[in-house]
Design brief:
The protein is globular, with a radius of gyration of 19 Å. By secondary structure, it is α/β, with parallel strands linked by helices. It has two domains: 150 residues, TPP-binding domain (Rossmann fold, 3-Layer(aba) Sandwich), CATH 3.40.50.1220; 80 residues, SIR2/SIRT2 'Small Domain' (2-Layer Sandwich), CATH 3.30.1600. The strands form three sheets. The chain has a six-stranded parallel sheet with strand order 3-2-1-7-8-11. The chain has nine helices and eleven strands. 30% of the residues lie in helices and 22% in strands. Bound molecules: zinc ion. Zinc ion binds next to loops.
């Protein structure tokens, strides 16, 4: 069975990482300023400081049991995992079939030659490109106002089951993606109205999925496991 996983901030929040929405970093920073290409052009040092702080924070937290559970699914199923998260907690839990949609916090990118390289949890202060030696380097993350090349994968993954985890659907229209797959599971503690560039729809995102687990990801794992066992065994009706 092929699984298509799409994860967002709700997966890493239980590890203690501040989230960008829902009362996290939005309250402490002008996030539009420090996470946008316009803000970066206006004051790159401020943006570097912001990401230095995020990297340091990431070095102090650990993967939670949901990261480990999702990473282990790769041993049982054919998995493609797209994540909106820029942290490396899934990798640290052992995930290998992972594609970062919004870049990676532990990496810098050279503005001269485009080379991307890892700096772990260090500050980017004084770092230069190991490829060409240039000091013109930036966080290897996608800023607001930039295109995200890996979005090309969103609609091209062949799978029997689509699972959306901890993503509010406000950046990526997961309701639309769910309709492309015969089976789908949404895990989210909150019901969100579907919102697209055309405005707010008069329906909830969960209505587009064949199954909805209304819980934090760490509390949803037992139910998810039961659903996967049922689906993999081909026994019983997957839909409740
Ligand atoms: Zn370079």
């Amino acid at each position: 069975m092929r699984l298509y996983l799409l994860s967002g901030a709700g997966l890493s929040a239980p590890s203690g990482l501040a989230t960008f929405r829902d009362g996290g970093l939005w309250d402490r920073y002008d996030v539009v300023e420090v996470c946008s290409i316009q803000g970066y052009r206006r004051d790159p040092h401020r943006v570097h400081r912001f990401y230095d702080e995020r990297r340091q924070e990431l070095g102090q937290v650990r993967p939670n049991r949901a990261h480990y559970y999702l990473a282990k699914l790769e041993e049982r199923f054919d998995v493609v995992h797209l994540t909106q998260n820029v942290d490396d907690l899934l990798e640290r839990a052992g995930a290998q079939s992972l594609i970062h949609l919004h870049g990676e916090l532990t990496k810098l990118r050279c503005l001269e030659c485009g080379h991307s390289f890892s700096i772990g949890y260090l500050s980017q202060e004084g770092k230069s490109c190991p490829g060409c030696g240039s000091c013109k380097v930036r966080p290897d993350v996608i800023f607001f106002g930039e295109s995200a090349p890996n979005y090309r994968y969103l609609y091209t993954i062949e799978a029997d089951l689509f699972i959306a985890i901890g993503t509010s659907g406000r950046v990526i229209d997961i309701a639309d993606i769910a309709q492309h797959y015969p089976r789908s599971i949404l895990i989210d503690p909150v019901r969100h109205k579907r919102v697209t560039m055309f405005g707010e729809f008069d329906c909830y995102i969960d209505e587009y999925f064949t199954h909805f687990i209304q819980a934090d990801i760490c509390e949803a794992l037992e139910e998810l496991e039961l659903l996967l066992q049922r689906e993999a065994g081909g026994a019983g009706d997957f839909m409740d």
